[in-house]
Amino acid sequence: MSMVMQSGEALVDSAPRFPRKRKGISGRSIAILVFLSICAAFFMVPLYVIITTSFKTMEQIREGAIFSLPSPITIEPWINAWDNACSGIRCEGLKVGFWNSVAILLPSLALSMILSSVTGYALALWNVRWAGTFLFVLFICAFVPFQIIMIPLIILSSGLKVYGTIWGIAIIHAVLSMPFLTLVFRNYYKGIPQEIMSAAMMDSGSFWRIFGEIIVPMSGNIFIVVLILQVTSIWNDFLLGLTFGGLGTQPMSVVLANVVITTTGEAAYNENMAAALLTAIPPLVIYFVLGKFFVQGITAGAIKG
Amino acid sequence: MPRVIFEDIIKSYGKLTVLKNLDLAINDGEFLVLLGPSGCGKTTLLNLLAGLLDVTAGRIMIGDRDVTDLDPKDRGLAMVFQSYALYPTKTVRGNLKFGLAAHKLEKAEIEQRISWAAKLLQIEPLLDRKPAQLSGGQRQRVAIGRALVKKVGVFLFDEPLSNLDAKLRTEMRLEIKKLHDELKSTIVYVTHDQIEAMTMATRIAVMDAGVIQQFGTPDEIYGRPANLFVAGFIGSPAMNLRPATLSVSGSTVAARAAGVDLDVSRYGFTTPPRDGQSVVIGLRPEHFGEPDAAVADPAGNFSLPVQYSEKTGSDATAYLKFGDGLIATRVDPEQIGRFKQGDTVNISFPQGKLHVFDAQSGRRL
User: Fold this and answer.
1) Which band of pLDDT confidence, cut at 50, 70 and 90, is reported for residue A5?
2) Which among A183, A287, A291, B81 could disulfide-bond with A195, CB atoms 3.0 to 4.6 Å apart, if both were Cys?
3) Do B126 and B88 lie in a common domain?
């Protein structure tokens, strides 16, 4: 034991023979730091105001010092925002919108990811007639703003008897995100070595079997990327939820807007801030949780090396 | 009965024709090697057989079935790819099992086949590993195993050894040869490595520019190359090819190249030689006699200055100045000391080993 200690000490004692010069802080790096701090402050200052305000009492808010820290700290605005804030004449809080949003999110995610991954897989790895033309059309469609086709889509969806239902919103989400997501999946699948596909063609030759057993297990990364993209855009969506959701299926973003915009009596700033934060939390949680699952090297071991 | 027949195959991409009216018949149990330089169409031919590409015109038969328009999975083939192409998310066992996906087999049969192939290839301890946890040689074995479990009549290999190091390549070469001897199945093997071709093949099809230049046993290809391309492609160091002119007087025929007369009177001409005919003579480096010691029955004697020499351990090659070019001769490494730069050495070439080609058509005479 003592021997080990001694040799350990000896190692520490011996100074490096070729010491590296320590890097000091140069003028350039100070400039970069200042610039980055300003950029960060641009986002951080409003966020600071929102967070502190949501924990303040209305008395403190009325004093007008928006940068002051909350004293006393209260979580009542959060409870009110969740449970009994008024959206129009209904005073049931944001929780109704939250569960509506969850109910919209899950089928929308499933539909859009299945639709676009299968399309991308077919376009990338199978000989599809007119695949190039189809891709071009998709590419054009990715640039069409939703507002332009909103009214025709409402007429279409009411013709299909899905207008005002959760499935109606899910289908519209899936269709609208398909062009962009298909391009994402297609480009990812183009990166899969041709020989793996050739081997699968000789082994099985079945479109669905190859997709399910070979391609999907290799798609972990891209599914996570698309999941983050879609969770963020579906959760934060306002216009689609407003126009396609019936009264009972309004997503959280629409309820939030009603809570904040409605003015009967005094404006409860603390409640509004808490409501905004509550609405913003779910995509953030998804982002942090899923970010960990990124794995490197989809084809590790498949080909030479 | 021929196992695989290509009839009048044409493959073109737009205006570019890769394969031109190609005919080839492969016998049952044969180990056929498609040999040629990069871009000669050998891999294209293999992919046409596998069904991964469609022919532009022509017919492909396997056994007595016309498979030209069949899907790859229905052709009764198994293929080993250059990059192994293992499924990265499946275990070794899963890889072998997926190879049987198209066949509706009972569970016991699948298990039995997997353990048979694993035993044959000595990959039993690896069955539950993922491809990423295997070395290059082990991946190669798994790739071969995935083909073997299908128990098909024809196996296709697309340059399977080119990603392995030299030692492993030699080992796997022997193993594939052994597998072929054991299983007696038909193998079509694509490579650009002539050593692989010469050691493993029962017959070789040498390809260049989309055309089969010669189809024969390794001995035929080496001993009687059909044209200048085959003569230059097979053999290392390459055959010395020198332009020469024939002079015929009575029954003596001589080929004069850069001032040296070579006696070709007893050469087995397939067409009668003409006086003044332009030819190319081929002399393999390994057939020259020892320096300053005449071979029995020489076709010609050379007295040439040494340009440079190189040693590869078991072998040595000396390059002699001949006319305005060089002639390579294989030398016993112990003798290489006698080939000093600038020295003139006397070497002779034996009668029976000469090759004569027509200068215009490139065909063997």
Assistant:
1) very low
2) B81
3) yes
Residues 6 or more apart whose Cβ sits within 8 Å of residue A124: A185, A186, A187, A188, A189, A190, A192
Residues 210-239 of A with CB under 8 A from B: 213-214, 217-218
DSSP state letters, A210-259 = HIIIIIGGG-HHHHHHHHHHHHHHHHH--HHHHHHB-GGG--HHHHHHHH
Same domain, yes or no: B216 and B78: yes
CB contact under 8 A, B73 and A205: yes
| Neighbouring-strand partners of residue B253 | B248
Span B55-98, pLDDT tens digits: 999 999 888 888 888 888 888 889 999 888 899 889 999 999 98
**How many Å lie between the alpha carbon of A220 and the closest alpha carbon of chain B?**
11
User: With contacts defined as CB-CB under 8 Å, which chain B residues touch A191?
Assistant: none
The size of the A-B interface in CB pairs under 8 A is: 101
pLDDT at A3 over 60: no
Partner-chain contact B73 A303, CB within 8 Å: no
Report the pLDDT value the prediction gives residue B167, as an integer from 0 to 100.
Answer: 86
Is the dihedral angle over the CA atoms B164, B170, B172, B176 positive or is it negative?
Answer: positive
* Contact flag B89-A217 (C-beta cutoff 8 Å): yes
pLDDT in tens, B216-242: 999 999 989 999 999 989 988 889 888
pLDDT tens per residue, range B271-317: 888 888 888 888 898 888 887 777 777 778 888 888 888 888 888 88
Nearby residues of A60 by Cβ (< 8 Å), 6 or more positions away: A68, A70, A71
**CATH code matching the domain that covers A103-269+282-291, chosen among 1.10.3720.10, 3.10.50.40, 3.40.50.1000, 3.40.50.970:** 1.10.3720.10
Search chain A and give the residue with CA nearest B165.
A305
**Interface of chain B against chain A, CB under 8 Å?**
47, 50-52, 71-74, 77-79, 81-90, 98-102, 130-134, 136, 139, 146, 163
Cis bond upstream, residue B237 (ω within 30) = yes
Residue of A nearest to B155 (CA): A202
What CATH number does the domain containing B301 carry?
Answer: 2.40.50.100
- For residue B110, the enclosing domain spans 2-233
User: How far apart, in whole angstroms, are the C-alpha atoms of residue A300 and residue B7?
Assistant: 40
Q: Which of A114, A200, A194 is nearest to B89 (CA)?
A: A200
| Whether pLDDT at B3 is above 60 | yes
Nearest chain A Cα to B99, which residue?
Answer: A203
d(CA B49, CA B72): 9
Question: What's the pLDDT tens digit per position in B283-293?
Answer: 898 888 887 77
CA B348 to chain centroid, in Å, comes to: 29
Number of domains chain B contains: 2
- Nearest CA of chain B to the CA of A266: how many Å? 60
Residue A157: what pLDDT? 87
Q: Which of A34-43, A232-241, B65-74, B113-122 has maximum average pLDDT? A: A34-43
Is the residue at B363 inside a domain? no
Q: What is the mean pLDDT of residues A59-86?
A: 85
Q: Which residues of A touch B139 (CB under 8 A)?
A: 301, 304
Contact criterion met (CB below 8 Å) for A78 and A278 = yes
